[in-house]
Amino acid sequence: RKEVEQDPGPFNVPEGATVAFNCTYSNSASQSFFWYRQDCRKEPKLLMSVYSSGNEDGRFTAQLNRASQYISLLIRDSKLSDSATYLCVVPRTGSYQLTFGKGTKLSVIP
Amino acid sequence: DVKVTQSSRYLVKRTGEKVFLECVQDMDHENMFWYRQDPGLGLRLIYFSYDVKMKEKGDIPEGYSVSREKKERFSLILESASTNQTSMYLCASSPDPAANEQFFGPGTRLTVL
Question: Does the beta-carbon distance from A96 to B41 stay under 8 Å?
């Protein structure tokens, strides 16, 4: 299994839809996980952190399944402004480094 | 607000030239990182630094070197640029070893002809 693996998409969804992305990771010792968002031609920015079973922030919910080693990001009531690439990020154990997934591209269409 | 700035948004250089990419952060962060981002390959770590004058190789250090003479500044050097170094280069910083959030600069799009 690759260190961090994501479905590249693109996911094309209508406004108001609910969409979910999955990310699998290989290091079973990982304790924390992150979702970053990267807009077109912009830098990545932290969207959400996941330290236990999950985290919710408004329309965004991140869930962690340690047994199956995957993280998911759920976006409810999609907005046009949610169009971006979503990067799954896993810290490397005992290191300052982060491993970034290749990203899942989301396009929300009117 | 944390601010990470990079010296150029776009840069065009010729094969064999020595190239300097500069990154400055204004939040007294300990750790700084250089990545390159290519379509289909994602973000890959080139070098990082956890203190002044300290540096560690990342996943793809070949053809690059770095310099960190001051805490706020982290430079990436391409000793002899090659066409396969055409890429988007992103600098990031984070406050301490336990902090996993990295703050990114706007990136430098480097084209090597």
Answer: no
A 32-61 near B (Cβ less than 8 A):
32, 34, 42-46, 49
In 10 A of CB B53, how many CB atoms? 10
**φ and ψ of A10, to 5 deg:** -80, 150
In this structure, the number of other CB atoms found within 10 A of the CB of residue B48 comes to 26
Burial class of residue B70 (count of CB atoms within 10 Å of its CB; 0-12, 13-18, 19+): exposed
A33 Cα to chain B: minimum distance (Å): 9
- Rounded distance, CA A73 to CA A89, Å? 12
Give the distance from residue B80's alpha carbon to the nearest chain A alpha carbon, in angstroms.
26
Closest CB to A43 among B31, B41, B106: B106
Query: pLDDT tens across A36-82, in order?
Result: 999 999 999 999 998 887 889 999 999 999 899 999 999 999 999 99
Mean pLDDT confidence for A76-93: 94
CA distance B20 to B74: 10
